[in-house]
């Protein structure tokens, strides 16, 4: 099937406004206790009431972003405020570190064992502060961002299971999320702080985690930027690598840095060639750089966020470079993703498929899947294709 940019822009816009947002707006709001339900079955029925702080903050960020960037609708701001108020009251420990999980009422269940809850809190409260004008939200965002900067070199702190000094590895997840987070907070951060953090993260991602010979993003490397011959050292996470590349493109386009943009597009294409399942279609979840059996037993599953981030990266790469390969791969990925993950009967997208592309878990939300990757990708792809008409 052939596509036009205008048709695609309308498809993403319509899906976001008339399917994805209404699904979460209808099914996820806990009007009784605050915050959001994220464990939703195929039809949107709640099957678990625990609240996972990543996903709570992501939904605050998402509805605040809708309010800021699409239309200042009072119902969207009300939903963002509903989550922000719950999190401001229950989300942090006495030292200001953000928990991982709460029960329905907001009592802590899981300690603040890494900095990603803080990352998403900073994103959420920054965008909510912009939408609402709340000074308290602004201060919460800055405090969470300070936590991230303070802990980024030891993201798990006292909760790490690694024995000190034997096998030191740093993770791609930290600089890539810091890059995206800093862009999201650009209006709140001093210009010199923002530019320094963005410069450092681009240098680390493209200089340390990118293997220049293979053109692939490694998930973990030594502090000196070397590879280790072990499970973690050989791990390729295609979705992470591709998502990191559109973060790099967003940063680079601020200064029209075409060298970095082209390099990021090349990495996306390399990962796609490496990770595409030639037999059944779609992208593998995890791979071993040297072709050994991966440690992760779920390595061959097909996940929603991996394919959505790829659609964003390819649409953005096409807009910024016009490379024919971006458009060719985009159409291939579009056909796979929309025919396998989208659920026209009940709305939203499935999250987990087996290797053959069959639905593995009949759900729309869980401990990890919430109101984030699907609506963000719908919005970003809509914007890319609208800009190319």
List descriptors.
Glycosyltransferase, three-stranded antiparallel β-sheet, 389 residues, 8% strand, mainly alpha
Please describe what this structure looks like.
With 389 residues, the chain is mostly helical. The chain has two domains: 133 residues, Alpha/alpha barrel (Glycosyltransferase), CATH 1.50.10; 220 residues, Glycosyltransferase (Alpha/alpha barrel). It has twelve helices and 14 strands. The strands form six sheets. It has a three-stranded antiparallel beta sheet. A three-stranded antiparallel beta sheet has the order 12-13-14. Helix 6 runs parallel beside helix 8 and helix 10 runs parallel beside helix 12. It is globular and about 50 Å long.
Compact summary:
The protein has helices at residues 5-27, 53-69, 74-90, 116-132, 135-151, 173-184, 191-209, 238-253, 258-275, 304-321, 324-340, 373-387; strands spanning 39-40, 46-48, 51-52, 101-102, 108-110, 170-171, 210-211, 216-217, 220-221, 235-236, 287-288, 302-303, 352-353, 359-361. It is mostly helical.
The total of helices stands at 12
Pick out the low-confidence regions.
Answer: none
- Total E-strand runs: 14
Give the quaternary arrangement of the chains. single chain
Question: Helices and strands in order, then pairings?
Answer:
Elements: H1 5-27, E1 39-40, E2 46-48, E3 51-52, H2 53-69, H3 74-90, E4 101-102, E5 108-110, H4 116-132, H5 135-151, E6 170-171, H6 173-184, H7 191-209, E7 210-211, E8 216-217, E9 220-221, E10 235-236, H8 238-253, H9 258-275, E11 287-288, E12 302-303, H10 304-321, H11 324-340, E13 352-353, E14 359-361, H12 373-387
Antiparallel strand pairs: 1-2, 3-4, 4-5, 6-9, 7-8, 10-11, 12-13, 13-14
Helix pairs in contact: 1-12, 2-3, 2-4, 3-4, 4-5, 4-6, 6-7, 6-8, 8-9, 8-10, 9-10, 10-11, 10-12
